[in-house]
Amino acid sequence: MTATGQAAYQYQPLCKPGQLICGTGQTAVITGWTVKGAIAKRLQSQEFAVIGQLYSPTRGISFLIRNLLANPHVRYLVVVNATKEDRNAGGCDCLLDFFRHGFEAGESDTGRRCWVVSSSIPGYVDFEIAESALEQLRQSMEWFEVKSISEAVHQVQALALQALRDNPKPWGAPLSFPQPPESAVTVLPGPRYGHRIEGKTIAQTWVKIIHRIKTMGTIRPTGYDGQWQELIDLMAIVTDEPAGFYFPEPNYLPCDRPFIEQYISHILDDAPDQEGIQYTYGQRLRSWFGQDQVEQVIQKLIIEIDSARAVMSLWDVRDHAADHSPPCLNHIWLRVTEGELSLTATFRSNDMFAAWPANTMGLRALQEHICSQIASRSPHKLNVGPLITVSQSAHIYDDCWENADQLIQNQYAKICAARDYADPAGSFGVSVQGSKILVEHLTPGAGEVVNCYCGTSASQLYRQISADCPVLQVEHALYLGTELQKAELATTTTFIYEQDKPLRRGSLPGESSPGRLP
């Protein structure tokens, strides 16, 4: 008991304790995308039970509800539904709908049985949690929606005074329930550092990225009460994303067109300082350092179209401070090569499942903006070239593994089936000349011969070619090895070799026509 006679409670979270600020009061504060510390610094610990953020309705509400069930002394809920990010993500609205409208049995987007929040925004609660416990929670808590930090602080303080006066008792005993079964993770051997993935569209490239991480990524703790599967230094190249963006039908991306239309402004446009919001990428590019870096690179390339100095930085040395939330996107380079404007962006940390598609579409919009501005203000006529991201930590959080596995199962084989035989490294012509194998290396497009190889052994030739041309696409290299082996067989038998065709048997001495092997 406190000196006033009011009971003091200590919030004991079962899930994600490292992401929460815990107090001794009876009000839970859900801040959505607003930084939780911006509210905590204006309150005393006895005025609240817990303060935490809610980013995703499909990934966060179930954890939140488990914690509330384990802490029945919490009788009030204040939901800060304040930012544009909250409107886009829908987590706060979905949580409020849980208390307003309830839930029903159904399936998650991965087909797992769960409780589905009765809301226009998809939100899931683990089916392992008893229906009666969820209903008891809904009936036992008084909830409030607020639209600003100041309104949230005022509401929490008012509820603290109300609790001091009424001294409400816990609505029941603490409850805990089994966790859903974890997805099995199988990691195949492969390099941890330095991966290259290329695709025509953002959607296609994303599926390849998710497959690579889930296949070869190292499982590590995140520092946020969970795990992620990670590759280090992953370079993704998008070559032909159309204007206006390609969204597959049905859309398997973790974002849709309305969300992207809102998100693009976070990269293109400046934003005023706002309490509870650390920054936007656009703010870092447009005004953070006292310079409009986007305008700087436009002017730089107009004056010197071949410049290698069209660089923008989002990293601030003050970001090393422990209380800062540094940007994941750190640097952007623009470069013009043969009439194409390419953009390269580096991320220190990249959520490849939930964030990379939106990140990349925002960067593509920036690339298109810079390209059009150069074209409209100068005689330079440019095409939008490839978009490259380099993710130092390319990872998938453990609460997305199930979704990632389903994506791979549904989409990866289809993408691999849409094969592209154009290899930037060129092509190879293989022929048999007597007892020798002749290989000509041809340039893409024009087909000019740039190198010749001659030998009697397939292994000898593929070693020479791999040393001279180590960037061959994997399928192309495997194809070439198959053709060389066929050619070697033809030099030591009566088989006749023609590239891209099955071996056929030639005439033996005394035979009038080719026979067939049994």
Automatic annotation (TrEMBL):
GO CC annotations, alphabetized? cytosol
**Domain DUF4346 as annotated: residue spans:** 423-500
- Keywords in UniProt for this one? Methyltransferase, Transferase
Q: What is its EC number?
A: 2.1.1.45
GO-annotated biological processes: dTMP biosynthetic process; methylation
What GO molecular-function term can you cite, just one? thymidylate synthase activity
Cited InterPro entries: PterinBD-DUF4346, Thymidate_synth/dCMP_Mease, Thymidate_synth/dCMP_Mease_dom, Thymidate_synth/dCMP_Mease_sf
Q: Where is the Thymidylate synthase/dCMP hydroxymethylase domain?
A: 274-413
Which CDD domains does the UniProt record give? TS_Pyrimidine_HMase
Concerning Pfam families, the annotation shows:
PterinBD-DUF4346, Thymidylat_synt
Which PANTHER family does the record associate with it?
THYMIDYLATE SYNTHASE 1
Protein name in the entry: Thymidylate synthase
Q: Which species is this UniProt entry from?
A: uncultured Synechococcales cyanobacterium
